[in-house]
Amino acid sequence: MAFLLGECLLLELLEQVDMSQAEFAKRLKCSRQYVGQLITKKDNATMSLEFAINAADVLGCSVNELYTLRETSSRKGH
Question: HTH cro/C1-type domain: which residues (predicted)?
């Protein structure tokens, strides 16, 4: 079984910890625009593993909580 990234849950997580997108961007040393792109998946934007680890640390959650995951029936190339 393999997984694909589904919906980005960043906006919901920010609301849970009462943090603005601007504050989150400042703490992650990225632009507010990039945070918006992640939330909307504009241009298929997704977090790098390094960014996700740091985002999870700032938000007090696990990396797996940043996105919904969709199961696929098989892994490509395996």
Answer: 10-66
- Give CA angle at 29 (27, 31), nearest 5°: 110
Nearest to 68 by CA among 36, 42, 37, 46: 46
- The pLDDT tens digits of the residues spanning 9-63 come to 999 999 999 999 999 999 999 999 999 999 998 988 999 999 999 999 999 999 9
pTM: 0.85
* Positive/negative CA dihedral, 13, 19, 21, 25: negative
